[in-house]
# Entry
Amino acid sequence: MEAKAYLRNCRIAPRKVQIVLDLIRGQDLKKAQAILKYTSKSACEPVLKLVNSAAANAENNFQMNKDSLYVAECFVCQGPTLKRIRPRAQGRAFRINKKTSHITVVLKEREA
# Structure
């Protein structure tokens, strides 16, 4: 049994989110929440909300014990890129790509 939560079109580059997800992969729920709360990365706030959402899904939808949950899987995929234009010298325009992320977190129960 597993509980999932998804975050689509998050306005953070996938490279930055991947650093945070590597910190919590395989950790117990309480430890993962503590890591996310006290790490100073911009991706920690949306990932913490996502982990809490997955924990609520596990508890309410699947009647899983919250104390025995751990982060079984977490990964990020690139979402659609927002293309913006920056004016440059002599009438030129340079493109700025604002990347987005699709984040997935999967929680499972540890075997006793």
The mean pLDDT is 96. Residues 44-61 form the longest helix (18 residues). The helical segments are 14-24, 29-38, 44-61.
